[in-house]
Amino acid sequence: MALPTHWGVRPEETARSYPCDDRVPAPGGTWFRAVSVQAPPDVVYRWLCQMRVAPYSYDLLDNLGRRSPRTLTPGAEDLTAGQRVMTIFELVSFTPGRDMTLRMLPGPGRRLFGDLALTYDVRTDDTGATRLVVKALLGAERGALNEARRRALAWGDLLMMRKQLLTFRTLAEHQAATG
Asked: What is the DSSP string of 105-167?
């Protein structure tokens, strides 16, 4: 497993199934990103719900320069399938406290990036740390241009999602430490 398709993930995390597996049955690419968080799973999951409000990555690039909130937004945890998440995604399924699966909405994002479904998964590992794992499946559009696009996007996604996951880790750990 190597960059840019895999970052921070463990072999057993790539071997299990995720809800996004049913959304893109024959993917053209599979990416994994993961971090360990020293906070309870419910705190980590609650921060994931904040994606309804902002992307929590490089705000200048993906949030029109507005800073993603550093406090929890009341009601952001009230999830319903069909809600917009991070502007260009739709929440297609979720298990409260455990996972959220998103799919790229039709429109400019899908035209630029292609079909994309991803699951954010939260669970405790055998050390007691919370693991935040993301599995992303890309559409299987064929051709040399699409393959080149997927390779380039993998690097861009790694950069953006690494920042997002590290931000969520920092915020969840701060909340867990301060109550």
From this structure: PTTHHHHHH-SEEEEEEEEE-TTSPEEEEEEEEE----SHHHHHHHHHHHHHHHHHHHHHHHH
